[in-house]
Design a protein that fits this description.
Radius of gyration: 21 Å
Strand order of the largest sheet: 2-1-3-13-6
Low-confidence stretches: 1-28
Keywords: Signal, Transport
Strand content: 5-15%
Helix content: 40-55%
Protein name: Probable sugar-binding periplasmic protein
Subcellular location: Cell envelope
Number of strands: 15
Function: Part of a binding-protein-dependent transport system for a sugar.
Family: Belongs to the bacterial solute-binding protein 1 family.
Number of helices: 18
Bound molecules: beta-D-galactopyranose
Distance between the termini: 30 Å
Structural class: alpha/beta
Shape: globular
Length: 420
Amino acid sequence: MWKGRLAIISLLVVSLLASLSMFTVGGASDDQLEVYSWWTGPGEEEGLAAMAEAFEASNPGIRFVNAAVSGGAGSNAKAILASRLLANDPPDSYQRHAGLELLDDVRSGKVQDLTTLYEEQGWRKVFPKGLLDNLTIDGKIYAVPVNIHRANLIWFNPRVLRELGLAGPPKTWSDFLTQAAVIKGKGKVPLAVGPEWTQKHLMETVLLGELGADSYERLFSGDLRWTSPQVTSALDMFGKVLANSDVRSAAGEWQPQLDRVIEGSAVYAVMGDWSSSYLEQSKKLQWREGYDVATSPGTEGVYDFLSDSFTLPTGVRSPSLSRKWLIECGSADGQNLFNPLKGSIPARTDASADLYKGYLGWTLQQWRDPKTRIVGSLAHGVVANNAYNAEIDSALGLFVQHGDLGKFASTVQQQFQETR
Ligand code: GAL
Protein backbone atom coordinates (compact mmCIF):
# COMPACT_ATOMS: atom_id res chain seq x y z
CA MET A 1 0.00 0.00 0.00
CA TRP A 2 2.66 2.46 1.16
CA LYS A 3 4.93 1.33 -1.66
CA GLY A 4 2.13 2.12 -4.16
CA ARG A 5 1.55 5.58 -2.63
CA LEU A 6 5.25 6.32 -2.60
CA ALA A 7 5.53 5.34 -6.26
CA ILE A 8 2.63 7.66 -7.18
CA ILE A 9 4.08 10.54 -5.12
CA SER A 10 7.53 10.13 -6.70
CA LEU A 11 6.01 10.04 -10.17
CA LEU A 12 4.13 13.28 -9.45
CA VAL A 13 7.33 14.89 -8.18
CA VAL A 14 9.24 13.73 -11.26
CA SER A 15 6.45 15.08 -13.54
CA LEU A 16 6.51 18.38 -11.73
CA LEU A 17 10.28 18.66 -12.01
CA ALA A 18 10.14 17.69 -15.66
CA SER A 19 7.52 20.31 -16.42
CA LEU A 20 9.47 22.93 -14.47
CA SER A 21 12.64 22.14 -16.36
CA MET A 22 10.72 22.33 -19.65
CA PHE A 23 9.52 25.72 -18.54
CA THR A 24 13.05 26.92 -18.10
CA VAL A 25 14.90 25.20 -20.93
CA GLY A 26 12.09 24.42 -23.38
CA GLY A 27 9.25 26.72 -24.24
CA ALA A 28 7.68 27.58 -27.55
CA SER A 29 10.40 28.92 -29.73
CA ASP A 30 11.30 28.14 -33.32
CA ASP A 31 15.02 28.21 -32.73
CA GLN A 32 15.15 25.10 -30.59
CA LEU A 33 14.32 21.43 -30.80
CA GLU A 34 13.21 19.49 -27.73
CA VAL A 35 14.13 15.80 -27.94
CA TYR A 36 12.68 13.45 -25.35
CA SER A 37 14.33 10.17 -24.35
CA TRP A 38 15.46 8.22 -21.28
CA TRP A 39 19.14 8.34 -22.14
CA THR A 40 20.87 9.66 -19.06
CA GLY A 41 23.16 6.69 -18.35
CA PRO A 42 26.84 6.35 -19.21
CA GLY A 43 27.43 5.87 -22.92
CA GLU A 44 23.88 6.70 -23.99
CA GLU A 45 24.17 10.25 -22.72
CA GLU A 46 27.39 10.72 -24.68
CA GLY A 47 25.89 9.11 -27.79
CA LEU A 48 22.91 11.46 -27.70
CA ALA A 49 25.19 14.45 -27.10
CA ALA A 50 27.27 13.51 -30.16
CA MET A 51 24.17 13.43 -32.38
CA ALA A 52 22.92 16.67 -30.82
CA GLU A 53 26.20 18.39 -31.64
CA ALA A 54 26.08 17.17 -35.24
CA PHE A 55 22.46 18.33 -35.49
CA GLU A 56 23.35 21.82 -34.26
CA ALA A 57 26.32 21.99 -36.64
CA SER A 58 24.19 21.18 -39.66
CA ASN A 59 21.30 23.42 -38.51
CA PRO A 60 22.97 26.70 -37.51
CA GLY A 61 20.93 28.83 -35.13
CA ILE A 62 18.90 25.89 -33.78
CA ARG A 63 19.53 24.78 -30.20
CA PHE A 64 19.10 21.13 -29.22
CA VAL A 65 17.18 20.83 -25.93
CA ASN A 66 17.81 17.52 -24.23
CA ALA A 67 14.60 16.60 -22.37
CA ALA A 68 15.80 13.17 -21.19
CA VAL A 69 14.12 11.71 -18.08
CA SER A 70 16.22 9.14 -16.22
CA GLY A 71 15.06 5.60 -15.43
CA GLY A 72 16.17 2.45 -17.28
CA ALA A 73 13.96 1.16 -20.12
CA GLY A 74 11.98 4.40 -19.94
CA SER A 75 10.43 3.39 -16.62
CA ASN A 76 9.80 7.06 -15.64
CA ALA A 77 10.02 8.69 -19.06
CA LYS A 78 7.13 6.73 -20.56
CA ALA A 79 4.71 7.72 -17.77
CA ILE A 80 5.57 11.41 -18.03
CA LEU A 81 5.39 11.29 -21.82
CA ALA A 82 1.90 9.78 -21.58
CA SER A 83 0.68 12.78 -19.58
CA ARG A 84 2.29 15.23 -22.00
CA LEU A 85 0.70 13.51 -24.99
CA LEU A 86 -2.65 13.52 -23.25
CA ALA A 87 -2.30 17.26 -22.66
CA ASN A 88 -1.34 17.78 -26.34
CA ASP A 89 2.05 19.07 -25.23
CA PRO A 90 4.41 16.83 -27.20
CA PRO A 91 8.17 17.30 -27.40
CA ASP A 92 9.50 17.93 -30.92
CA SER A 93 10.49 14.26 -31.14
CA TYR A 94 10.36 11.38 -28.67
CA GLN A 95 11.93 7.97 -28.24
CA ARG A 96 9.90 4.80 -28.79
CA HIS A 97 10.88 1.24 -29.51
CA ALA A 98 10.19 -0.24 -32.90
CA GLY A 99 7.31 -2.71 -32.76
CA LEU A 100 3.94 -2.78 -31.05
CA GLU A 101 5.03 -0.08 -28.60
CA LEU A 102 4.15 2.38 -31.41
CA LEU A 103 0.64 1.08 -31.86
CA ASP A 104 -1.22 3.15 -29.24
CA ASP A 105 0.37 6.38 -30.47
CA VAL A 106 -0.64 5.57 -34.04
CA ARG A 107 -4.19 4.59 -33.10
CA SER A 108 -4.69 7.70 -31.00
CA GLY A 109 -3.23 9.96 -33.71
CA LYS A 110 -0.25 11.10 -31.59
CA VAL A 111 2.39 10.51 -34.28
CA GLN A 112 2.65 11.45 -37.95
CA ASP A 113 3.19 9.24 -40.96
CA LEU A 114 6.83 9.33 -42.12
CA THR A 115 6.42 7.41 -45.37
CA THR A 116 7.32 10.42 -47.54
CA LEU A 117 10.44 11.13 -45.48
CA TYR A 118 11.50 7.49 -45.95
CA GLU A 119 11.04 7.85 -49.69
CA GLU A 120 12.93 11.15 -49.87
CA GLN A 121 15.85 9.75 -47.87
CA GLY A 122 15.91 6.36 -49.62
CA TRP A 123 15.60 4.67 -46.23
CA ARG A 124 13.60 1.69 -47.42
CA LYS A 125 16.79 0.42 -49.05
CA VAL A 126 19.07 0.88 -46.03
CA PHE A 127 17.07 -0.58 -43.14
CA PRO A 128 16.47 -4.34 -42.82
CA LYS A 129 13.05 -5.49 -43.99
CA GLY A 130 12.13 -7.06 -40.64
CA LEU A 131 12.86 -3.77 -38.88
CA LEU A 132 10.83 -1.78 -41.44
CA ASP A 133 7.92 -4.16 -40.84
CA ASN A 134 8.13 -3.35 -37.13
CA LEU A 135 7.91 0.37 -37.87
CA THR A 136 4.98 0.04 -40.26
CA ILE A 137 1.34 0.05 -39.21
CA ASP A 138 -1.41 -0.24 -41.83
CA GLY A 139 1.11 0.42 -44.59
CA LYS A 140 2.54 3.63 -43.10
CA ILE A 141 5.90 4.10 -41.36
CA TYR A 142 5.91 5.91 -38.03
CA ALA A 143 9.42 6.11 -36.57
CA VAL A 144 13.09 6.33 -37.51
CA PRO A 145 15.42 3.75 -35.93
CA VAL A 146 18.87 4.77 -34.68
CA ASN A 147 20.13 1.42 -33.47
CA ILE A 148 19.74 -2.26 -32.75
CA HIS A 149 20.14 -3.64 -29.24
CA ARG A 150 20.21 -7.25 -28.10
CA ALA A 151 18.33 -8.47 -25.03
CA ASN A 152 19.24 -12.20 -24.74
CA LEU A 153 22.62 -11.92 -23.06
CA ILE A 154 24.15 -13.20 -19.83
CA TRP A 155 27.03 -11.16 -18.35
CA PHE A 156 29.77 -12.41 -16.07
CA ASN A 157 33.23 -11.79 -14.70
CA PRO A 158 35.57 -14.44 -16.19
CA ARG A 159 37.85 -14.28 -13.13
CA VAL A 160 34.95 -15.20 -10.82
CA LEU A 161 34.04 -18.18 -13.03
CA ARG A 162 37.64 -19.40 -12.91
CA GLU A 163 37.76 -19.04 -9.12
CA LEU A 164 34.58 -21.07 -8.80
CA GLY A 165 35.93 -23.75 -11.12
CA LEU A 166 33.14 -23.17 -13.68
CA ALA A 167 34.23 -23.92 -17.24
CA GLY A 168 31.87 -21.37 -18.83
CA PRO A 169 28.46 -19.76 -18.61
CA PRO A 170 25.42 -22.10 -18.63
CA LYS A 171 24.20 -23.31 -22.04
CA THR A 172 20.68 -24.04 -20.81
CA TRP A 173 18.60 -22.94 -17.83
CA SER A 174 18.90 -26.46 -16.37
CA ASP A 175 22.68 -26.03 -16.55
CA PHE A 176 22.21 -22.75 -14.73
CA LEU A 177 20.36 -24.52 -11.89
CA THR A 178 23.19 -27.06 -11.61
CA GLN A 179 25.78 -24.28 -11.49
CA ALA A 180 23.62 -22.32 -9.03
CA ALA A 181 23.91 -25.12 -6.45
CA VAL A 182 27.73 -24.92 -6.67
CA ILE A 183 27.71 -21.11 -6.57
CA LYS A 184 25.46 -20.97 -3.51
CA GLY A 185 27.65 -23.56 -1.79
CA LYS A 186 30.49 -21.07 -2.13
CA GLY A 187 28.46 -18.25 -0.58
CA LYS A 188 27.69 -16.26 -3.73
CA VAL A 189 24.43 -15.27 -5.41
CA PRO A 190 23.96 -17.12 -8.74
CA LEU A 191 22.00 -14.35 -10.50
CA ALA A 192 21.79 -10.61 -9.84
CA VAL A 193 18.47 -8.93 -10.73
CA GLY A 194 17.32 -5.30 -10.55
CA PRO A 195 13.99 -3.44 -10.76
CA GLU A 196 10.72 -4.77 -12.14
CA TRP A 197 11.52 -4.25 -15.81
CA THR A 198 14.76 -6.23 -15.43
CA GLN A 199 12.70 -9.07 -13.92
CA LYS A 200 10.47 -8.98 -17.00
CA HIS A 201 13.56 -8.87 -19.21
CA LEU A 202 14.78 -11.99 -17.39
CA MET A 203 11.42 -13.72 -17.84
CA GLU A 204 11.53 -12.97 -21.55
CA THR A 205 14.93 -14.61 -21.94
CA VAL A 206 13.92 -17.66 -19.86
CA LEU A 207 10.78 -18.07 -22.00
CA LEU A 208 12.86 -17.74 -25.17
CA GLY A 209 15.45 -20.23 -23.93
CA GLU A 210 12.89 -22.77 -22.74
CA LEU A 211 10.31 -22.46 -25.53
CA GLY A 212 12.61 -21.84 -28.50
CA ALA A 213 12.14 -19.05 -31.05
CA ASP A 214 9.06 -20.49 -32.82
CA SER A 215 7.00 -21.03 -29.70
CA TYR A 216 8.18 -17.72 -28.22
CA GLU A 217 6.77 -15.96 -31.30
CA ARG A 218 3.56 -18.01 -31.16
CA LEU A 219 3.11 -16.98 -27.52
CA PHE A 220 3.15 -13.31 -28.43
CA SER A 221 1.06 -13.71 -31.57
CA GLY A 222 -1.58 -15.46 -29.48
CA ASP A 223 -1.24 -18.92 -31.08
CA LEU A 224 0.22 -20.43 -27.92
CA ARG A 225 -1.58 -19.92 -24.63
CA TRP A 226 0.16 -18.78 -21.44
CA THR A 227 -1.73 -21.56 -19.66
CA SER A 228 -0.52 -24.33 -22.04
CA PRO A 229 1.67 -27.12 -20.56
CA GLN A 230 4.69 -25.90 -22.59
CA VAL A 231 4.49 -22.34 -21.26
CA THR A 232 3.64 -23.53 -17.74
CA SER A 233 6.84 -25.53 -17.67
CA ALA A 234 8.87 -22.56 -18.98
CA LEU A 235 7.31 -20.32 -16.32
CA ASP A 236 8.09 -22.94 -13.71
CA MET A 237 11.73 -22.68 -14.79
CA PHE A 238 11.50 -18.89 -14.51
CA GLY A 239 10.29 -19.32 -10.90
CA LYS A 240 13.29 -21.56 -10.15
CA VAL A 241 15.69 -19.11 -11.76
CA LEU A 242 14.23 -16.24 -9.70
CA ALA A 243 14.62 -18.34 -6.56
CA ASN A 244 18.36 -18.38 -7.31
CA SER A 245 18.54 -14.62 -7.67
CA ASP A 246 18.78 -11.69 -5.31
CA VAL A 247 15.43 -10.23 -6.44
CA ARG A 248 14.42 -7.71 -3.81
CA SER A 249 12.43 -4.78 -5.04
CA ALA A 250 10.54 -3.43 -8.04
CA ALA A 251 12.40 -0.13 -7.78
CA GLY A 252 15.99 0.86 -8.56
CA GLU A 253 18.27 0.89 -11.58
CA TRP A 254 19.89 -1.72 -13.82
CA GLN A 255 23.58 -0.86 -13.28
CA PRO A 256 23.90 -2.17 -9.68
CA GLN A 257 23.16 -5.74 -10.78
CA LEU A 258 26.18 -5.57 -13.08
CA ASP A 259 28.24 -4.01 -10.29
CA ARG A 260 27.56 -7.05 -8.10
CA VAL A 261 28.70 -9.35 -10.90
CA ILE A 262 31.91 -7.40 -11.44
CA GLU A 263 32.67 -7.22 -7.69
CA GLY A 264 31.98 -10.95 -7.47
CA SER A 265 29.21 -11.12 -4.85
CA ALA A 266 26.92 -12.38 -7.64
CA VAL A 267 27.99 -14.48 -10.64
CA TYR A 268 25.60 -13.76 -13.54
CA ALA A 269 23.22 -11.03 -14.73
CA VAL A 270 20.85 -11.13 -17.70
CA MET A 271 20.70 -7.71 -19.34
CA GLY A 272 20.71 -6.01 -22.72
CA ASP A 273 23.84 -4.84 -24.44
CA TRP A 274 23.64 -1.25 -23.17
CA SER A 275 25.65 -3.03 -20.42
CA SER A 276 28.71 -3.07 -22.67
CA SER A 277 29.06 0.73 -22.71
CA TYR A 278 28.47 0.87 -18.96
CA LEU A 279 31.13 -1.75 -18.27
CA GLU A 280 33.61 -0.31 -20.74
CA GLN A 281 33.11 3.41 -20.31
CA SER A 282 32.17 3.73 -16.63
CA LYS A 283 33.92 0.70 -15.19
CA LYS A 284 36.86 0.80 -17.63
CA LEU A 285 36.69 -2.95 -18.21
CA GLN A 286 37.64 -4.81 -21.36
CA TRP A 287 35.52 -7.39 -23.12
CA ARG A 288 36.75 -10.96 -22.45
CA GLU A 289 39.08 -9.70 -19.68
CA GLY A 290 37.31 -7.61 -17.04
CA TYR A 291 33.89 -8.76 -18.21
CA ASP A 292 32.46 -11.31 -20.60
CA VAL A 293 29.08 -12.09 -22.12
CA ALA A 294 27.32 -14.98 -23.85
CA THR A 295 23.89 -15.55 -25.35
CA SER A 296 21.47 -16.24 -22.52
CA PRO A 297 20.90 -19.96 -21.81
CA GLY A 298 19.12 -21.89 -24.56
CA THR A 299 19.26 -19.06 -27.13
CA GLU A 300 22.39 -19.70 -29.16
CA GLY A 301 21.86 -18.53 -32.77
CA VAL A 302 18.87 -16.39 -31.75
CA TYR A 303 18.95 -12.58 -31.60
CA ASP A 304 16.28 -11.09 -29.33
CA PHE A 305 16.29 -7.57 -30.75
CA LEU A 306 14.94 -4.14 -29.95
CA SER A 307 15.46 -0.82 -31.68
CA ASP A 308 15.40 2.72 -30.33
CA SER A 309 13.52 4.98 -32.70
CA PHE A 310 12.33 8.58 -32.87
CA THR A 311 8.93 9.91 -33.89
CA LEU A 312 7.32 13.01 -35.38
CA PRO A 313 4.56 13.87 -32.89
CA THR A 314 1.30 15.41 -34.03
CA GLY A 315 0.98 19.12 -33.24
CA VAL A 316 4.68 19.97 -32.98
CA ARG A 317 5.59 23.62 -33.50
CA SER A 318 7.76 22.98 -36.53
CA PRO A 319 7.37 19.62 -38.30
CA SER A 320 10.18 20.54 -40.69
CA LEU A 321 12.56 21.05 -37.77
CA SER A 322 11.53 17.73 -36.22
CA ARG A 323 12.14 16.09 -39.60
CA LYS A 324 15.69 17.48 -39.62
CA TRP A 325 16.31 15.69 -36.33
CA LEU A 326 14.87 12.47 -37.78
CA ILE A 327 17.22 12.84 -40.76
CA GLU A 328 20.13 13.04 -38.32
CA CYS A 329 18.88 9.86 -36.57
CA GLY A 330 18.49 7.93 -39.81
CA SER A 331 21.72 9.12 -41.45
CA ALA A 332 24.83 6.97 -41.72
CA ASP A 333 26.89 9.72 -40.04
CA GLY A 334 24.44 10.06 -37.14
CA GLN A 335 24.33 6.31 -36.57
CA ASN A 336 28.11 6.05 -36.72
CA LEU A 337 28.50 8.81 -34.16
CA PHE A 338 25.85 7.46 -31.82
CA ASN A 339 26.18 3.70 -31.71
CA PRO A 340 29.82 3.08 -30.76
CA LEU A 341 29.23 5.35 -27.71
CA LYS A 342 25.79 3.97 -26.91
CA GLY A 343 26.90 0.34 -26.96
CA SER A 344 24.56 -0.62 -29.78
CA ILE A 345 24.94 -1.42 -33.46
CA PRO A 346 23.61 0.60 -36.40
CA ALA A 347 20.11 0.00 -37.72
CA ARG A 348 21.40 0.81 -41.22
CA THR A 349 22.72 -2.13 -43.20
CA ASP A 350 25.30 0.02 -45.03
CA ALA A 351 27.14 1.28 -41.92
CA SER A 352 30.78 0.29 -41.79
CA ALA A 353 31.58 -2.63 -39.46
CA ASP A 354 35.06 -1.19 -38.79
CA LEU A 355 33.75 1.18 -36.15
CA TYR A 356 32.44 -1.69 -34.03
CA LYS A 357 35.15 -3.36 -31.99
CA GLY A 358 35.20 -5.86 -29.15
CA TYR A 359 31.75 -6.89 -27.95
CA LEU A 360 30.03 -4.69 -30.55
CA GLY A 361 31.98 -6.30 -33.39
CA TRP A 362 30.99 -9.76 -32.11
CA THR A 363 27.30 -8.91 -31.93
CA LEU A 364 27.23 -7.00 -35.25
CA GLN A 365 28.57 -10.07 -37.00
CA GLN A 366 25.77 -12.18 -35.54
CA TRP A 367 23.10 -9.60 -36.38
CA ARG A 368 24.23 -9.59 -40.00
CA ASP A 369 24.64 -13.38 -40.27
CA PRO A 370 21.76 -14.66 -42.45
CA LYS A 371 21.64 -17.84 -40.34
CA THR A 372 20.77 -15.88 -37.18
CA ARG A 373 17.15 -16.18 -36.09
CA ILE A 374 15.73 -12.79 -35.09
CA VAL A 375 12.88 -12.40 -32.60
CA GLY A 376 11.52 -9.27 -30.87
CA SER A 377 11.81 -8.22 -27.23
CA LEU A 378 8.87 -8.11 -24.83
CA ALA A 379 10.34 -5.83 -22.15
CA HIS A 380 11.46 -3.35 -24.82
CA GLY A 381 8.27 -3.03 -26.76
CA VAL A 382 8.65 -5.11 -29.92
CA VAL A 383 6.12 -7.91 -29.39
CA ALA A 384 3.58 -6.35 -27.01
CA ASN A 385 1.63 -3.12 -27.08
CA ASN A 386 1.82 -0.74 -24.10
CA ALA A 387 -1.43 -1.82 -22.49
CA TYR A 388 -0.50 -5.52 -22.62
CA ASN A 389 3.01 -4.79 -21.36
CA ALA A 390 1.58 -2.79 -18.45
CA GLU A 391 -0.73 -5.69 -17.51
CA ILE A 392 2.22 -8.09 -17.62
CA ASP A 393 4.09 -5.69 -15.30
CA SER A 394 1.30 -5.76 -12.73
CA ALA A 395 0.84 -9.53 -12.88
CA LEU A 396 4.58 -10.10 -12.68
CA GLY A 397 4.87 -7.81 -9.64
CA LEU A 398 2.36 -10.05 -7.85
CA PHE A 399 3.98 -13.26 -9.09
CA VAL A 400 7.38 -12.18 -7.76
CA GLN A 401 5.81 -11.52 -4.35
CA HIS A 402 3.49 -14.53 -4.08
CA GLY A 403 4.84 -17.07 -6.58
CA ASP A 404 1.39 -18.11 -7.84
CA LEU A 405 2.32 -19.27 -11.30
CA GLY A 406 -1.16 -20.47 -12.34
CA LYS A 407 -2.69 -17.14 -11.46
CA PHE A 408 0.04 -15.26 -13.32
CA ALA A 409 -0.46 -17.35 -16.48
CA SER A 410 -4.25 -17.06 -16.49
CA THR A 411 -4.18 -13.30 -15.82
CA VAL A 412 -1.69 -12.67 -18.64
CA GLN A 413 -3.66 -14.90 -21.00
CA GLN A 414 -6.85 -12.99 -20.24
CA GLN A 415 -5.08 -9.64 -20.63
CA PHE A 416 -3.76 -10.69 -24.02
CA GLN A 417 -7.37 -10.90 -25.26
CA GLU A 418 -8.47 -7.71 -23.50
CA THR A 419 -5.63 -5.46 -24.67
CA ARG A 420 -5.54 -6.51 -28.34
C1 GAL B 1 16.07 0.12 -23.33
C2 GAL B 1 16.54 1.06 -24.40
C3 GAL B 1 18.02 1.15 -24.37
C4 GAL B 1 18.52 1.48 -22.97
C5 GAL B 1 17.90 0.55 -21.96
C6 GAL B 1 18.28 0.85 -20.53
O1 GAL B 1 14.67 0.07 -23.32
O2 GAL B 1 16.12 0.59 -25.64
O3 GAL B 1 18.45 2.11 -25.29
O4 GAL B 1 18.22 2.81 -22.69
O5 GAL B 1 16.51 0.55 -22.07
O6 GAL B 1 17.74 2.04 -20.11
